[in-house]
Design goal:
With 330 residues, this protein is an alpha/beta fold. Helices cover 43% and strands 12% of the residues. The protein has an 8-stranded parallel beta barrel, surrounded by 5 helices. The mean pLDDT is 96. Bound molecules: flavin mononucleotide.
């Protein structure tokens, strides 16, 4: 049994995953989330196969750092050269990842222009070759999954998802319920999950389908899985609103105290400095401040103070001051 099958048969609830998010869901963030309430599976940020197989490998491969506590963890890859998928898949299996996921959904202009990611929706021949090469690379050691959208410029669920399930024999599939052209500008077409689930039942009953897009609570995730008969959900931006989103015992994040939030921020900064200070600038942390410093009086003023920090030392100092100021809120 691979880890997806194990999760499916051992869990008493649908499978919840944290979405891959470029420059957000690195090893440090994933470990921070394990403190709040972990998802059933983590994904890495997307990693370019062509970069991994280039002379720049040492730099690109930093994205694949992970610690045991993050397992089960799936490495997500993208790129355009079939041979590089094969080689990278071999490497990812050797690095001890539990699975490999192929990005066929990213709508970023330059990426699409290069013929990768969501551009593969319009190039089914290459999409199939990439899936086959990745499967050959892992050689049965770990499962191969795909993350995609419901179409390119229009909804093509039957055609595209049907192709992945039938012609490419994809057994683990995450679908963001929007087309590529829609980016995240319109509400998700959740009804498409129902169509996908029916397609799955027709083509391969054992395939697992995960829904993605606009899931903002654990409860909502459960409802979506039940309503559309899918096996799990992947949550992305919802984690910014509530880092405890995967913790089924904390139904309302308003019960999280300011102290809990600041303690988590301190932990994040400490781990980040330890892991990345030689590689990443402290400013990378700015995108997380709202996640921790919100929901209490003057939170936006406190965030501005953190934003002004230009070094780890200044940031730690600003956090200490913030702790003193919010002591009465504990
Ligand atoms: C900052 C950011 C970075 C992202 N990076 C990736 C990525 O590396 N790979 C990927 O498949 N999707 C990526 N996505 C898309 C998310 O995984 C997810 O599909 C999308 O945000 C919709 O889900 P949500 O509404 O739960 O956020 C990214 C999204 C955001 C907001």
């Amino acid at each position: 049994m691979n880890f997806w099958q194990e999760l499916k048969s051992n869990l008493d609830h649908p499978i919840f995953s944290l979405a891959p998010m470029e420059d957000v869901t690195d090893t440090v963030f994933r470990r921070v989330i394990t403190k709040c309430g972990r998802p059933d599976v983590f994904f890495t940020e997307f990693t370019n196969c062509d970069g991994v197989q280039s002379i720049g490998q040492a730099k690109v491969i930093e994205r694949l750092r992970y610690k045991k506590i993050e397992k089960p963890i799936v490495a997500q890859v993208w790129g355009k050269t079939v041979k590089n998928y094969y080689e990278t898949a071999k490497l990812i299996a050797d690095l001890g990842f539990d699975g490999i996921d192929i990005n066929m959904g990213c709508p970023v202009k330059n990426v699409v222009k290069s013929g990768s990611c969501s551009a593969l929706i319009n190039n089914t021949k290459l999409a199939k070759e990439i899936i086959e090469a990745t499967k050959a690379g892992v050689n049965g050691k770990i499962p191969v999954s795909v993350k995609t959208r419901i179409g390119f410029s229009k909804i093509q669920t039957e055609e595209w998802i049907g192709f992945l399930l039938k012609d490419c024999n994809v057994e683990y599939l995450t679908v963001h319920a929007r087309t590529v052209s829609e980016l995240t500008k319109v509400p998700c077409h959740f009804d498409e999950f129902g169509k996908i689930s029916k397609l799955r039942n027709k083509i391969n009953k054992n395939a697992l389908i995960f829904g993605n897009g606009d899931i903002l609570s654990y409860e909502q995730g459960l409802d979506v899985c039940k309503k559309y008969n899918i096996d799990g959900v992947m949550i992305g931006r919802g984690i910014f609103q509530n880092p405890w989103i995967f913790n089924k015992n904390i139904v309302d994040p308003k019960y999280i105290t300011p102290k809990d939030r600041i303690d988590l921020l301190k932990y994040h900064v400490k781990l980040f400095e330890k892991e990345w200070s030689k590689i990443k600038d402290v400013s990378v942390l700015k995108k997380y401040f709202k996640m921790y410093i919100s929901g209490f009086p003057n939170a936006s003023d406190y965030r501005i103070k953190l934003m002004e920090a230009k070094s780890y030392e200044e940031l730690n100092f600003a956090i200490k001051n913030l702790e003193k100021e919010i002591i009465h809120l504990r």
